[in-house]
Amino acid sequence: MADAVAKLTQLMSWESFGDLLTSFWATLRLPDSDNSTIIYDLIVFYASSDPLIFAMRAGLVCSFIAWFQSMATGLHSWVDKIWPIVPVLYAIHFSVSDMFFWPADKPFIYVPRAYLATALIFLWGARATYNFGRQGGYSLEFEDYRWSYMGQKMPAGIWFFFNIFFVCLFQNQLLVFLTMVTPLNWIDLVATVGALAGLVLENVAEHQKWVFEQSLKKAIENKEALTGDYKRGFLTQGVWKYCRHPNFSGELIMWW
Length: 256
Fold this sequence. Notes:
Elements: H1 2-11, H2 14-26, H3 38-48, H4 51-73, H5 78-82, H6 86-96, H7 112-134, H8 145-153, H9 156-178, H10 187-221, H11 228-232, H12 246-255
Helix pairs in contact: 4-9, 6-7, 7-10, 10-12
Keywords: Membrane, Transmembrane, Transmembrane helix
Protein name: Steroid 5-alpha reductase C-terminal domain-containing protein
Pfam families: DUF1295
């Protein structure tokens, strides 16, 4: 029994996991080719690029697209639409970028913290994408009311540059740096528990808010007498009883 437990423990160790990754990614290594193709060249370019520089360039591309769309449509929530999605892609990128073209004669250096962070960010992204989508965020006509409000309050010239440097550029580069990781340590256990707790809090808060808003909308449509939270216009039950913005609190706990 003791031998079986010891063997199982060894199989579940990071060293065994690293050996598994090494053998798996070795099978995906691109063979040498004299017949260059666009796809092959793109993969070679990706594999030979510095992971951070590549991600920052991708962020610049996203920034330009968001700016172009905002100028073409007059709406400024294009970064909001990709906010739950690109961090997942960046996290995967940082996790797997070193695996491509890893020298066959050298042991693979795996980064457990990157894989753990990627899993947590994936869960966050799935929740955020679903919640944003059910609120109509992916509609082409959607715009966050805060951008509309700021656009009305700011002089046109200041808003123009604010849109470029903050809404489009800064936010996209922020998403790159939020997904960078460092070596795993004991603090990550606490951080993982905290991230999961923040994710649960955020999800519960958003769902309670969604149910409340749908009930309020139905009550208004039916011309019912509004009392309590319905009359106040904001929720004071559930997790909202203890915090004015539990969804934002969960988001902060998740990332910081």
